[in-house]
Design brief:
Aminopeptidase; Aminopeptidase i, Domain 2; nine-stranded mixed sheet; seven-stranded antiparallel sheet; 30% helix
Length: 486
């Protein structure tokens, strides 16, 4: 058997030149060591458990806060406005109305020299209740809904759904609802038409099978035992809600109640190489992001301040006071500047932001050979080939997206290569076939250098999305390298 030196000498000039000049995106499974393989599977198990417990933005944020507290992070509100400076190594966080989160590990260099940031979003497409949702029709009780984010309506029919939410009663008491996740719980569903009567329906385009107004959730059928009462099926359900939670119908008007796919996240494939479940977009990147800053939290104080940013409302435009278009991230940065710099001023805040680097931690559309016509193989992201760098987002001429400059792209690529992190580039489909956006363009407005970077996903925005375990772990390691060295 020849030595590696002999094999190298046997290569032709063309072979050697192609190795030098071409970008060879290798499959990570081919190069992963036995130790890394064990770490990959262990990381995926932790993620699956986290995803099962954090199916809404409130639940996911709450779990992240618990992890931060365990690592010694302190909520900024508890520190007040006075007192001494935050020194290098200090760990702080801010919980934004229970739906968004930003945390930081203070570095040794002045904040005017910038921060290293990894930012993701924690909301996912779902079905929300309307403000007056419960009604009775033909012996059934239904919840009237308004979908959230970009979904294919037909994918959400005839599957078990779970009810998650936060309600504030008339007396001011706040409580959480979760029905449909425990084995003994009932579930909910949206009904569909049987094939025997669906001849006309089947002639329609997929986008017309269902109207958004028709995603009515089946909630009950047993009437209250009083023939003189009105809307007895509805009354039965309100009685159960009142008995368990003290709710009256008026409480629905301001409640946040979401319906999401019921059940556990599962391994996919005989080889267990993939993870299937609800909410990979974008909680797989959010989980990798929060774990990356926690992995560095016990290390010696970093040179630059490290930040993890988890936002809400990305799926509907990053709006509201918990979306990245609000001022909460800017306000948090101002707080850090005021507690670390001498003689705080607005210009120092602007210098801090303009000197900062960020990975917009969001998923990409993985190439699916079943739908080849909408992908460009040359620029698609692939399962098993590592974290995806997306230079530009948007649609129709890059409209409504963000694009990183050449200098920052090379900085990130060089950093990943140095740390032997497998990465690939990827766009969201063929030109003019679609596209999408992330939180990157809104953070870029502050002057921050931003590059989109995350995990490739199959069946994105469906009730059961699929990712590769090796891509998830590679992305996590990439975030660590970026935070530590950018």
């Amino acid at each position: 058997m020849g030595s590696s030196r002999d094999k190298e000498d046997a290569k032709t000039e063309g072979q050697r030149l192609s190795e030098e000049l071409f970008f060879d995106i290798k499959n990570c499974w081919d190069t992963v060591s036995p130790e890394e393989l064990g770490e990959t599977r262990e990381f995926a198990e932790g993620y699956k458990d986290f995803l099962d417990k954090g199916k809404t933005e409130r639940e996911f944020t709450g779990l992240c806060v618990d992890m931060l507290k365990q690592k010694g992070f302190v909520e900024v509100e508890s520190l007040g406005d006075g007192g001494g400076k935050l020194r290098a190594g200090a760990k702080v966080y801010q919980n934004i109305k229970g739906k968004s989160l930003v945390c930081a590990v203070i570095g040794g260099r002045p904040l005017e020299e910038g921060m290293n940031i990894v930012g993701a979003h924690v909301d996912s497409p779902r079905i929300d209740l309307k403000t007056n949702p419960l009604y009775e029709d033909s012996g059934f009780a239904f919840f009237d809904t308004h979908y959230y984010g970009g979904i294919k309506y037909y994918q959400w029919t005839t599957i078990p759904l779970a009810m998650h939410g936060t309600v504030v009663r008339k007396d001011g008491e706040k409580f959480r609802i979760c029905v449909g996740e425990d084995p003994g719980d009932p579930v909910f569903t949206v009904t569909d038409l049987l094939p025997h009567l669906a001849r006309d329906q089947m002639q329609k385009k997929a986008s017309e099978f269902f109207d958004g107004e028709d995603l009515n959730i089946l909630a009950g059928s047993e009437p209250f035992r009083d023939e003189k009462a009105k809307e007895r099926v509805k009354l039965k359900l309100m009685g159960l809600l009142h008995e368990k939670y003290g709710m009256v119908e008026e409480d629905f008007s301001g409640a946040e109640i979401e319906f999401v796919p019921a059940g556990k996240t599962r391994d996919v494939g005989l080889d267990r190489s993939m993870v299937g479940g609800y909410g990979h977009d974008d909680r797989c990147c959010a989980y990798a992001a929060i774990r990356s800053i926690l992995a560095l939290a016990d290390s010696p104080p970093p040179e630059k301040t490290l930040v993890c940013l988890l936002t809400d409302k990305e799926e509907i435009g990053s709006v509201g006071n918990t979306g990245i278009q609000s001022r909460f991230f800017e306000n948090f940065t101002a707080y850090l500047c005021s507690r670390t710099l001498d003689h705080y001023s607005d210009i120092k805040l602007r210098r801090c932001l303009a000197s900062s680097f960020m990975l917009s931690a969001d998923v990409s559309a993985a190439y699916d050979p079943n739908y080849d016509s909408v992908y460009d193989k040359k620029t698609s992201s692939w399962f098993g080939k590592g974290m995806v760098l997306t230079k530009y987002t948007g649609r129709g001429g890059k409209y409504g997206g963000s694009e990183a400059n050449a200098e920052f792209c090379q900085k990130v690529q060089a950093l990943l290569n140095k740390n032997k992190i497998r990465w690939q580039f990827g766009d969201i489909g063929r030109v003019d076939k679609g596209g999408g956006g992330t939180i990157a363009l809104f953070v870029a407005k502050l002057g921050v250098e931003v590059l989109d970077c995350g995990v490739p996903v199959l069946s994105m925005h469906s009730p059961f999305e699929v990712i590769s375990k090796i891509d998830l772990y590679t992305t996590y390691k990439g975030y660590i390298a970026f935070l530590r060295e950018a």
